[in-house]
Specification:
The chain has 5 helices and 10 strands, in the order H-E-H-E-E-E-E-E-H-H-H-E-E-E-E. The chain folds into 2 domains: 2-107, Ribosomal Protein L22, Chain A (Alpha-Beta Complex), CATH 3.90.470; 116-213, no CATH class. The longest helix has 26 residues, at 144-169. It has helices at 2-12, 47-66, 127-130, 133-140, 144-169, and strands at 20-25, 75-76, 82-83, 89-94, 99-104, 109-118, 178-183, 188-193, 205-213, 216-224. 31% of the residues lie in helices and 28% in strands. The chain is globular, with a radius of gyration of 17 Å. The protein has 225 residues and is an alpha+beta fold.
Length: 225
Amino acid sequence: MIQQKFAFPEFARHLFSDTVAMASTDPRAPMPRLLGDEVLAVEQVSTARAREFGAGRDAARAAMVQLGHVPRPVLQGPNRAPIWPVGLTGSITHNETTCLAVVTDAPEIAALGIDLEAASALDPSLWPEVCTMPEMNWLAKLGPSQRGNFAKLIFCAKEAVYKAQYQISRTLMDFQAVDLEFDLQASAFTARFTRDLPGFAPDARLRGRFSILSSTFVAGVEICR
């Protein structure tokens, strides 16, 4: 567990520019202290969900400190999206053992998105829901033993894209609304919107990066103004 806490911020930093701070926490640890109205988000949730929420906010505040800011509340808005303090933007993700948060105060960065998922095969019944037809064609060219894992990578990358675009569009986006192309050698991907979204030009493209760490996929997206 100690190695994992060290490994994620150390080896996932390259997913974002130098002006983005990253921190990790353990959602299995005792519930951290919440600030202000953050407590409203955990009043009627399970203990596990409350710990995930608290650990994510704790990681976000640790990232704020890295940037030289006093820790501030990160409230929960519609669709459970974080409401970042004025002058900051970021993203939070978690699984059963790790919470990761990225935060920036760089004015040239409009939004961030991060997601982590187990590097395991995605259930084939979910592939048509998650993957567009070009992505399905790409999976078909891979070896049979690889397809499920790369389908999960597509899922992870689209979650990161969703979190980043939502900060701008405030629009719920399904998996078919974005088409991904991967550069596996560069550990990078390009996301092309297949539908118009508020705040984005038609056929807009976003660039992202991914890593495989501790049997986990981590994907990151950074949108500049």
